[in-house]
Amino acid sequence: MTRVYISTVVPAPVTSVWRVVRNFNGLPDWTPFVTASRIEGGMHPDQIGCIRNFQLENGDTIREQLLALSDYDMSCTYSILESGMGVRDYIATLALIPITDGNRTFASWEANFDCDPQAESGLIDQIGQGVFQTAFDALKKRFG
Amino acid sequence: MDTVRESTVIDAPVGAVWALLRDFNSHDRWHPAIASSRIEDGLTSQTVGGVRYFSLTDGSILREQLIACSDRDMSLRYCLLDSPLPLMGYVAEMRLRPVTDRFRTLLEWSSTFQPPAPERNRLIALVRDDIYRAGFSALHDWFSGAPQPAKPVVAPKPAPPKNSGQTTMGIVIQRHGGPEVLSFQPIELPPVGPKEVRLHQTYVGVNFIDIHCRTGHFDMIDPPGIPGMEAVGTITSVGSEVSGLRLGDRVGYACAPVGAYCTDRVMPESMLVKLPDSLSDDQAAGTLLKGMTASFLLHDVQPVGPDDIVLIHAASGGVGQLLVQWAKALGARVIATASSAEKLVMALSNGADRVINYRQEDFVSATLDLTDGMGASVIFDGVGQNTLEGSLEAAAIRGHVVSFGEASGPPGLHDLGRLSSKSLRFSRPNYGHYVGSAAQVERYSRLLFDAISSGKLRIPSPEIYPLSKAAEAQSALESRRLTWSAVLETSG
User: How far is A16 from chain B (nearest CA, A)?
Assistant: First the structure.
C-alpha cells in the first residue's frame, strides 16, 4: 500500500473552507485542473454512494465514488472507480481541522492505493504535488 | 460535559515538537504555570498509567495520569487525578499533525470535563487561557529560540530568624520534590525566648504531612525549610518566663510550626507535654501526632460510646490502629475496613468486632448487612476520594461521617442536599484547629497518656532511621510497607 499525505494551513475560518470543499461536485469551482464535473444518475452530491464524473484539462475522465461525508468531522472520503493513473484500491480523505489560534484552517489530504512498483514514486509526486498541493495552493490563494 | 478545544500551528517540524510533548514529564521545561514535574513511582515518562506530579507556580499541586500515548498518531491522552480546581472527569488530549507544505506542526489540545454550574464559565476560560493558550505561547517561544521568562516566585521569603550563634544538625527541604531534595546539614539555632525552651531531641516522628510539605502538596514550607511536626527530647535551656518546665524534663510535641527534623530545637513551652514513663522516647515520637488525632476525633469531633457502631476505614494505618483500639475501649461496636487479609487480622487483634476487605467486597453493603440495614452511627474516613461516597451511603440515620484524611486523594465535591435524606452530619476536622492551644494540647495528651497507661492502647515500636537518612524513612512511609510508624534517631 502506498500512502500520500499533504497538509497545509488555509488563512480562513474552517466553516468557510468547508463550505467550498464539501461539495463533491465542486472540483471545477476550486481546483485549477478540473474543467467539468457531474454527479451520475441524478443523485445529490452529498448522498453517500454517489459518483462524480469529471474531466481534467488534458481531456482525461475520472470517476470517483463518495464513501463517507461528515459535517461533524469536516471530512470527505472517496474511492477511484476509473482513471488513467494506474492505481488500484485507491481511497482518499480530505479533512479540515479548525486552528483556533488565528481562526484559520488546517487541511489535510491523504490517499492510500496500490500500484506497480516502478510507477510508485511518479504517482506519489503526481498525486501529492500535482493534485493535492496544487488544489491546496489554489484554495489558499482563494482565501489569501 | 463541556469541551475545550484549542489548536495552533507551531513553526517547527512535527518530529521536534513530538519529541518534546511525548515526554509526559516535560511541562516544567516549557509551560509557564508548571514549577516542577516528576513522574511518581520511578516510572519512565512514556509509561501509560504513569502519574505526573506537578507543583504549580502558585504553589498548588496537580496529579495527572497518562492513559494513552501513540507515536503513530503523535497523540497522548491524560486525565486529572488531583487538582485544586473542580474539573470533574477531566480527560485531555494533545495531538500533533504535520503541515507538510511548510514543515510546521498543527497542535490540538482539547479536553472534556464537568465543571460545577456556578464555576463553569470561569473554569472553561481558565483551561482555555491559562493552560492551553499560555502553553501555546510558551511553545512558540520555545521553538523560536526566544529566551524563557523566569517563573514567578511563589511567595516572599520571611525574614531569617535571629541567630543564637549556635548550630545543630537538621534536614532541609532544598526545593519541592522527591526524597532527593532533603539534605542533612548544619542549621542555625535561634536564641531561646522568655516563654520558650530549647530541647535536645532524641527521636523525631515521620508523618505523611512531612511528605506533603516536601512535595509542596501542602503549602507549609517555602524552601529552603525544615519539615517535621513531632519529636521528643530533653530540655537543655529554659526561658526567663517559663514556669511549668525545668531543665532535664522529658517532653514531646506534635504541632505546627514545622521544623522538627533536627537535633536541637527551640519551642514555646505551651505546646510541649511531659511524657509518661510508660512510653519510651522512640515510641512517643512515633505516637504523639497519631494519638492526639485519635484523641480529639473520639472525644470532641464525635464523642464515641457504647451505643455507637463505628466504621473505621484504613484500620491498619497509624491513626486507624489507635481508633480501633480506643473506640473499642470506649464501648463502641467496631467495624474495620482494610485492603488485605494481614491487615484485617491486625484490626481483629486490635479489637475490631467485624472486618471488611474493601478490595474484595463492597463495604457499603457489608456494613449494612452487619448492622441489620441500619448503617454505622459514626464513620471515621481517612481515605478520602475512594471511600467518601460509600461512607455517606453506609452511615445510619443521624449518623456522623468524619473525613479526617485523604490517603487516596481529596474527598471531592458532594451534594450537601443529600445529607438530609438521613439527617447526616459531616465533619472535616483540621489538626491545627484541635491541637493549637496549650489547653487543647493538655486535654488531648492527657486523654492519650491515660489510655496508654491503663492499657487501653497498645503502642507498637516504630522503625528507627538515623536523622541523616530521613529520605529513606519518608520513602518507607510512602511505600506503605510500614505497619506502624517511622522515627528518626538524632544520635544515629
Answer: 18
Domain B2-144 falls under CATH 3.40.50.450: no
Q: Specify whether the CB–CB gap between A82 and A103 falls below 8 A.
A: no
C-alpha cell of residue B351: 479489637
Task: Quote ipTM for the complex.
Answer: 0.84
d(CA B488, CA A103): 59
Q: Which domain holds residue A96?
A: 2-143
The mean pLDDT value for B236-263 works out to: 94
Residues of B with CB under 8 A from a CB of A: 5-9, 97-102, 104, 106, 108, 133, 136
For the domain with range B297-434, which CATH number is right: 3.40.718.10, 3.40.50.720, 3.40.50.300, 3.30.70.260? 3.40.50.720
How many other β-carbons are positioned within 10 Å of the β-carbon of residue B260?
Answer: 30
| Minimal C-alpha gap between A100 and chain B (Å) | 5
- Looking at residue A117, which CATH number applies to its domain? 3.30.530.20
Whole-prediction pTM value?
0.56
* Range(s) within chain B of domains with CATH label 3.40.50.720: 297-434
Chain B hits for A9, CB-CB cut-off 8 Å, are: 9, 99, 102, 104, 106
Residue window 4-43, chain A: list those with CB within 8 Å of chain B.
5-9
Q: Which residues pair with B252 in a beta bridge?
A: B232, B273
pLDDT one-digit tens code per residue, B64-108: 999 998 888 899 999 999 888 888 899 999 999 999 988 899 999
Q: How many contacts (CB atoms, under 8 Å) link A and B?
A: 50
Cis peptide before A117 (omega within 30 of 0): no
Per-residue model confidence (pLDDT) at position B162: 57
Chain B residues touching residue A5 (CB < 8 angstroms):
98, 100
> Could you tell me the pLDDT band of residue B153, with boundaries at 50, 70 and 90?
very low
For chain A positions 100-119, those within 8 Å of chain B (CB to CB) are: 100-102, 104, 106, 108
Range A14-34 burial, b when 16+ CB lie within 10 A, else e: beebbeebbbbbbbeeebebb
Question: B227 pLDDT exceeds 60?
Answer: yes
Model pLDDT for residues A12-33, shown as the tens digit of each residue = 999 999 999 999 999 999 999 9
Could you tell me which residues come within 8 angstroms of residue B36 by beta carbon, excluding any fewer than 6 positions away? B28, B54, B55, B175, B176, B177, B216
Instruction: Pick A106's closest partner by Cβ from B5, B6, B106.
Output: B106
Nearest chain B residue to A6 by CA: give it: B100
Q: Suggest the residue from A3, A93, A99, A134 to mutate for an interface test with chain B (most B CBs closer than 10 A).
A: A99
Tens digit of pLDDT for each residue in B422-449? 999 999 999 989 998 999 999 999 999 9
Question: Coil, strand or helix: which one is A121?
Answer: helix
The alpha carbon of B69 is separated from its chain's Cα centroid by a whole number of angstroms, namely 29
Q: Nearest by CB to B97, which of A100, A108, A136? A: A108
Q: How far is B108 from chain A (nearest CA, A)?
A: 8
- Domain count along chain A: 1
pLDDT in tens, A103-128: 999 999 999 999 999 999 999 999 99
Ranges in chain B annotated CATH 3.90.180.10: 167-287+462-489
The answer as to CATH 3.40.50.1820 being correct for domain B167-287+462-489 is no
- Asked if B25 contacts B38 with a C-beta cutoff of 8 angstroms, the reply is yes
pLDDT tens-digit readout, B372-428: 999 999 999 999 888 999 999 999 999 999 999 887 777 877 788 889 999 999 999
